[in-house]
């Protein structure tokens, strides 16, 4: 067996040679946060950075937003909060899944604020602060989503309960809209009315109802704190909502090989794509293991009917279609219509970014920008553009 000296064990490839690479524009993220802040009126504007900052990197995204003035952050799980704490020393960090046995040290040690959502979580929290002492928490109230939260009645009972511990001091009461992306949905006003009851019952406690889409519903929905997530990353929270925002992420993958194929030949697994002309193909170094979802395949995924011909890439000023099935590590694009010599092995194809909108790329897979971003995986070589 060959022995390799550590000296020669290169483990990183530079951005310019990376098989797949991701550019995250932190100045765009900061600009989008400021846009959402302007739209939030008199409410403070938080930042949702769960799922590793929607796949773009909680450390860099969190630090940039913190430096820009964001003071209230939301994460899904305590580990995310502990990571963020190192980059946002004085921020208030809310953990949306709350606190449960075994996580106390992580909460107290990192100053994370649990968002409590059930009677069980409350009972556990009361027991924990009986030992620990006064500690902030937030309350999640369900107003119709039927995901997390105390029921309307449980919340009103808690607000009126004189027997609750004196050290119980919620700093925020929050709820989440089911149909914020549809301004005409009657559900929005129903949830707003239920939430108002609860917010009024917790007098003196700040209230928060709106994520990105809810912010666009207007001042009634803003309360004291808003919680934009996807908007910060340049994605649509509602159809067309990202038009006022800047794209924050560009995913590209390298062409490993170009090849000619004859009319009548087939492409990729299952031979689901038969070529109807002499074709030139580009074999590109990203596949479904890179979140380039197989559902975007050009053909051969019977369950997808939203976009029958699949997704597109962008190279040398042209949009190019995906041919046949996307595979784990590679995708095949049709470059037949490009000028001779316009594209060579080693060039990069944009998967999404300034020329292929995130939400169009997602729609081609029958999904949403949120899922595309949070599925990117570990193989992209990442470059961060710092805010000025
Ligand atoms: C994810 C999430 C948000 C952010 O939602 P966006 O649609 O990405 O703006 C806000 N609040 C809660 C409770 C969430 O789960």
From TrEMBL:
InterPro entries: Ala_racemase, Ala_racemase/Decarboxylase_C, Ala_racemase_C, Ala_racemase_N, Ala_racemase_pyridoxalP-BS, PLP-binding_barrel. GO terms for cellular component: cytosol. The modification N6-(pyridoxal phosphate)lysine is found at residue 50. The keyword Nucleotide-binding does not apply. Pfam families: Ala_racemase_C, Ala_racemase_N. Pathway: Amino-acid biosynthesis; D-alanine biosynthesis; D-alanine from L-alanine: step 1/1. Residues 248-385 form the Alanine racemase C-terminal domain. It catalyses: L-alanine = D-alanine. Keywords: Isomerase, Pyridoxal phosphate. It is an enzyme of class 5 (isomerase). Catalyzes the interconversion of L-alanine and D-alanine. May also act on other amino acids. PANTHER family: ALANINE RACEMASE, ALANINE RACEMASE, CATABOLIC-RELATED. This is Alanine racemase. The lineage of its organism: Bacteria, Pseudomonadati, Pseudomonadota, Alphaproteobacteria, Hyphomicrobiales.
């Amino acid at each position: 067996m060959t022995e390799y000296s550590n000296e020669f064990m290169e483990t990183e490839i530079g951005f310019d040679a990376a098989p797949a690479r991701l550019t995250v524009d932190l100045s765009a993220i900061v600009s989008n946060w400021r846009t959402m802040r302007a739209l939030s009126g008199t409410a403070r504007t938080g930042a949702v950075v769960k799922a590793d900052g929607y796949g773009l990197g909680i450390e860099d995204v969190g630090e940039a937003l913190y430096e820009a003035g964001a003071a209230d952050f939301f994460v899904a799980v305590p580990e995310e909060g502990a990571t963020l704490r190192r980059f946002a020393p004085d921020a208030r960090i809310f953990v949306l899944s709350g606190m449960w046995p075994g996580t106390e040290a992580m909460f107290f040690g990192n100053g994370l604020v649990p968002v409590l959502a059930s009677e069980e979580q409350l009972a556990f929290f009361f027991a924990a602060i009986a030992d620990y002492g006064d500690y902030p928490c937030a309350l999640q109230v369900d107003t119709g989503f039927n995901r997390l939260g105390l029921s309307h009645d449980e919340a009103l009972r808690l607000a009126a309960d004189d027997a609750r511990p004196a050290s119980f001091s919620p700093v925020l009461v929050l709820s989440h809209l089911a149909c914020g992306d549809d301004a005409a949905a009657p559900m929005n006003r129903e949830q707003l009315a239920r939430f108002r009851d609860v917010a009024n019952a917790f007098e003196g406690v700040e209230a928060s109802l709106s994520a990105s889409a809810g912010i666009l519903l207007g001042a009634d929905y803003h309360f004291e704190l808003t919680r934009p997530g996807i908007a910060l990353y340049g994605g649509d929270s509602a159809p067309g909502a990202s038009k006022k925002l800047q794209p924050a992420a560009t995913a590209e993958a390298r062409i490993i090989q170009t090849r000619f194929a004859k009319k009548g030949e087939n492409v990729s697994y299952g031979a689901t794509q038969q070529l109807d002309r002499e074709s030139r193909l580009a074999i590109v170094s990203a596949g479904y293991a890179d979140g380039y979802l197989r559902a975007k395949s050009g053909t051969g995924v019977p369950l997808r009917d939203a976009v029958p011909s699949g997704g597109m890439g962008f190279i040398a000023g042209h949009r190019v279609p995906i041919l046949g099935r996307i595979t784990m590590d590679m995708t095949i694009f049709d470059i037949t219509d490009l000028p001779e010599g316009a594209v060579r092995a080693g060039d990069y194809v944009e998967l999404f970014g300034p020329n292929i909108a995130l939400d169009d790329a997602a729609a081609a897979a029958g999904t949403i920008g949120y899922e595309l971003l949070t599925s990117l995986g570990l193989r992209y070589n990442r470059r961060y553009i710092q805010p000025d």
